Amino acid sequence: MERDTHFVLGVYEDEDVLMNAVKEVRSSGVKIHEVYSPYPVHGLEHALGYKRSRLPIAAFLFGMLGTSLALTMQFYMMKFDWPMIIGGKDFAAFPDFIPVSFEMTVLLAAFGMVGVFMVSSNLKPWAQPRIFDVRITDDKHVMAIDLAVNSGMGEEKIKEILASSGATEVNNKSFDE
Amino acid sequence: MQVTSSVRQPLVTGGKTYHDVTHDVSRQVEGKPSLAWFLAFLTAAGVLALGAIALVATLWEGIGMWGLNKTIGWAWDITNFVWWVGIGHAGTLISAVLLLFRQKWRTSINRAAEAMTIFAVICAAMFPVIHMGRPWIGAYWALPLPNTFGSLWVNFNSPLLWDVFAISTYFSVSLVFWYIGLIPDFATIRDRATGLRKTIYGALSFGWDGAAKTWMRYESVSLILAGLATPLVLSVHTIVSFDFATSVIPGWHTTIFPPYFVAGAIFSGFAMVLTLMIITRKVFKLEDYITMGHIELMNIVIIITGSIVGIAYITEFFIAWYSGVEAEQYAFINRATGPYWWAYWSMMTCNVISPQLFWIKKIRTSIVATFILSLVVNIGMWFERFVIIVTSLHRDFLPSSWAMFYPTWADVGVYLFTFGLFFTLFFLFAKFFPVINMAEVKSVLKSSSEKAAN
Fold this sequence. Notes:
The complex is a heterodimer of chains A (177) and B (454). Chain A has 177 residues and is of the alpha+beta class.
């Protein structure tokens, strides 16, 4: 898929200014490509209108899978495949199976959710991310506006909106891919 | 909009800006290692090499190299195992439980505490593995693997097997939790670097781009992992205590063990965090991030958990008397007045009396006193496990088989090996990984720094 390559960037220093800017820019009709920050800014996802992450659901489903696998495994091995009398206990000694079931639930929930997170956010050792500005992992927040998406609005107009929303710098950024 | 009480102490002192945070933490990774680091690292690696002799001897000759005998089948090995697992409880407690309780002071100590947790669990896991005698076929005894010895599966009724699952889950989930937190910080180092370092930290950062959507998912993952890790951390030492509590040995067969072990684990874990952090902040000049406020709060956790441990010791004693079971009563009297009285009273002094000194503000806000007491607590916690394990076993139901335990050089050497391993790994971590979670410190900087207060 061909990706858009020309962007206008608004650079912000303060998280509260950024938050207001996101609201202002969106209400003026400009579509924001994405905001990049050095740390998680609480409430930014709401201001950008993102839907809640569904990762907790993934974690729950993987956890259920872990519980079922663990219980199936233990009942199969202890009750059906090779029953042995241990300490005079029932073959299907359910209370004894709880610790392992709990651990497997946590293990699968954690690994499953993190796996989904890695895939959905394209996190992998060989990934080549687009770095809009190297300072976004240091001390600056950057709002990226895709020029192709906002072609209805002039580039100058977008820059004006960014500057009046509190951006300390307004830059152009192009990727040659 | 965040409202922070002006009465609260700032979490980061020295009027740091966001860029200062990046700089102060990254420069440890980027600069040449100091002479102090080299000396410390070589010492740790030397201890590791020395201990390796004992480890190889034990693997080659078998566990007959240790001082175990027919009466005392568990001694230094399991003492060390429980001790290291206990130490490995503070990291996840700090990062998970304190995250759920929204304790922001955790941000500057969670990274190093989690690293410590992971290394301590590696050290702990070594002991049961070596104790199997022939660890190369031990996988069949510890994991439910199909095999040709008959369809003999592992015994899911055994707390020792629960431990295998608990510790391996704890280790892997803690590792993932720690690594997820490291990704944004690796990206910070990547973006400051050039050449080979950029390639290495670029791969370590998994292509992190700092997008708001990724941060949203990151926060969601952190919260759920914290929610999963909280019962997990409590389950691990509970299950370790089941190794003893589900047996019928007087002195082990007590229902108080799970909460008592968990409190003891947090107690010793925080002591080890303090030992390491006091050195780290000094060597890496991070006094503005790991402040006196942090040290004081950790000392308060030590008072609380130390007091719980103290109450547990006394309750145990009382219940032994109250039960009216002679064997149970004898086990406890023997602990305090028998041939191992010195171990019992070392434990009592180090764990019950010494942490109470932290009620005095002058002591809990003194670096030197905190450092010394943190070592005392860890010595005391080692004795606690020794007392529980060895004194309960050495005089069993049959007086003709009563015995004493004497450690051999191999016992001492394998313990030294784990010390070498722990510190070698910790020093490597401290040099090549960002020791403070930069992204999280930045996220609390605006509301909780000294600058924000003015």
